[in-house]
Amino acid sequence: MKPLIALVQGDAAGIGPEVMGKLLSIDEVRSSARILILSDIRVFRAGNEVAALDTPVHVIDDIEGMDFEGDRPNLLHIPAIDPAQTPSGKVSIEAGAAVMRWFGEALDLAAAGKVSGICFMPFNKQAMHRAGLGAEDELQWAKQRLGSHSRASEFNVIDGMWNARVTSHIPLREVADRLTTPEIMEAVGLANGTLIRAGIERPRIAVAALNPHAGEGGTIGDEEIEIIEPAVAKAKAQRIDVSGPYPSDTLYPRLRDGAFDCVVSMYHDQGQIAIKLLGFDRGVTVLGGLPVPITTPAHGTAYDIAGKNRAAVEPARRAFMTVCEMARRA
Amino acid sequence: MRPPVLTLGEPAGIGPDIALAAASKGIPFVAFADLEMLGERAKILGIDITLRPIDEDALPCSDDITPKELPVVPIPIARLPKLGIPDAANSPYVLECIDKAVRACHRGHAGALVTAPVHKGIINDAGIAFSGHTEWIARLDGVARPVMMLCNDRLRVALATTHLPLRAVPDAIDEAMLVEILRVLEGDLRKRFGIEAPRILVCGLNPHAGEGGHLGREDIESIQPAIDRMVMEGLSVEGPIPADTAFTPARLVGADAVLAMFHDQGLPVLKHGGFGETVNITLGLGFVRTSVDHGTAFDLAGSGKADPSSLIRALEMARRMAPH
Q1: Which of A42, A231, A248, B189 gives B198 a disulfide partner, CB atoms 3.0 to 4.6 angstroms apart?
Q2: How far is residue A226 CA from its own chain's centroid?
Q3: Which residues does chain A have within 8 Å of residue B117's beta carbon, measured at their own beta carbons?
């Protein structure tokens, strides 16, 4: 049977609703999964209106009422926000609170084993923080709500190029002290598992160095020798196709040229500088290491073009197809 | 026009090879080197070229250097090198070439200095404290703060710190040094690149440029005050910009250079490709200095496989930037 995927409505003031409308008009999308939309029906309709589309959905108040006839999606109506009262293109606490209702419901369904993957339209972090998110970001929030304690990580995926990070939102001066061999091994293991789940049979993983020129044999820092190389060796012993550490200035061009499937970077900007150059906005964000796979288009709410029917659907389509792929391999 | 002068670096490496290859392609420059060593290497490589000894105070004009001819200021080597095997006995020679070439720049005979790679380890093995090419030249030039800048057809990136372990970077950065670096960068963009009012973007140090201090305080405490001082002096300096957005095409529009806080913040962008090949320039000296972006490649010395294209670009850049 096709996987049941929760498709979560995005920030009502952004491009999410119109992108969802476009997404559901794609035959391949509707036929790849049983789709359970979590949204306020009014927001869903407003999005369709902007996109000048009208994909039929089966509206329900309770998931017991799910009825998948043909490839018709079901929409679980969770009243949370009236789009008529929500100015488009502005940070709004109400919109932040609404996505937390919808996303929260999706996570609860996942925790109960009722859906096997989640794909969400763009959220606005500021709106969520103002609405009382109380966590660093949606990944941490999801982790808490799912009651998950294992390592979870955000992956950036652009045209089959994956990037993961060992450390993320911490001051640069703390990075070197936070790196440990087990931490890096875990990150490599998670990358390997996540890519396999996404359909890459034997992922080729490259580990980035920390220091310039990968430390140049210990003369420009010794973390490569003391911490990273042992992690790579141990991960290799677990039969993972992993290599490194590679100097970061030449590593990403090799990722781009297809020498690897995934880079595990040591710190935020190491990966993000490259990812932005490779075309971040075209990409997909995958939250790996949670009980269910979660994906979203990498771009944001794009308030400047919201409501104008100019938003591209391709990143959302890729995000949706990726979560289906991952859910099938669960 | 005054010619660029070239030092060949470590004689057991590919420095002599790429110099001969560049000269035989008709790129005009003057070499500071041992004549016999260079003649022998030309023979090994099968490069047909006339080595013309000249006086260090009588360098020819660029236009008078003909293809198939290389003017050489002769400097005697201690021992003819074995290919690929550096010899500490030749370290004083390597440095003498640099010293004399710098002198030619100081005396106004040369238009610019171009350097082929040296081997740091072997110079130190000779008992000479040598921390790096750039530092050595800056000391000769009496400069306290040389600034490394990499540049290609589309982008110029200067570095606030260069070959430091990442953990040492935050402590190496302070307001005073950033002010000095920004002054050097701004001054040389005007003087050497002819940009009237250079616009400089400055990267933050921490993720999201510290996000208001939540992800590190250096952006607020060191970088921002340095930028504010430059702006107060009427310069066009912007930042701190999160490094992952500073290099996006939209952000780079109208910018003449980006100051990165550390090596791997700036260099990956230049190597991303589509930007043309990169030349390394030392700013803040009394003269123009460019260098190749590779090492001594001992395994390739004398093989004819060494690629001279980085040297050729460095020579061309030196010629373009040199005072006329």
Answers
A1: B189
A2: 32
A3: none
